Amino acid sequence: MTVFVILKFVAVVIFSPIYLIPSIAVAALGGFLGNVYMNGQLSTKRELSNAKAPVLGHFGAAITGIKGTVLYDGLATNTLNLDVLRSNITIIPQVPELLSGTLRQNLDPFAEHDDALLNDALRSAGLFNLQEEGDKTRITLDTEIAGGGANLSVGQRQILALARAIVRRSKLLILDEATSAIDYETDSIIQTSLRTELGKDVTLLTVAHRLQTIMDADKIMVLDAGRIVEFGEPSELLKNEKGLFRALVDESGDREKLYATAMGASAS
Hints:
This protein is an alpha/beta fold. Helix content is 50%, strand content 12%.
């Protein structure tokens, strides 16, 4: 057994230099090609993500990577303290995260507000529209929330995230497909609440595929393959017979309702 081990050791010593140089070459080449692949993959995924992934998923990082200047209340964001900037911006993603604890702690982690205000926020966010008064599974301020909101549906998490944003009163509220998992009726209630509950000094930026969510917006930006193809008031965009936005509205089953909403918003 000892002789066999010695022979193996001698063989390793003799033959290792033969494979050392090729091994180094393969490792270097593999690392280079792997780096090229990862760069190519990242670029492709970002381009493809325009259609399927949340557009503003990396908004915080994007602010510092944009060429030019991004202004917030007339101030360049690259001159502001990052913590202060983040405290004044609320982003609600397509699949929001919740903290482990009671719903009250999720809405008001520092216990700054009373229950009446928190319940008003839940009502404005559409939660009470989804549950009956006597339902034993009804979500209340004392309901325990699992880590990440694992014991809730995506739609319920979106509503609670909206309620948290209403309580927080940020000056810039960004909804990134934030009502995509909610039915049309509840979505209508939420959109109405957002426009009445939020102050006039709050800017609401909505990213959505659902047309009814954005038809009464002040301005609409239409993206196609990651490029801005149209921008303006809904009523003005609908006047363009060859426009992409009008084509989307005309193909919708709620065409008349969408037109009425856009014209009503224009008149108000």
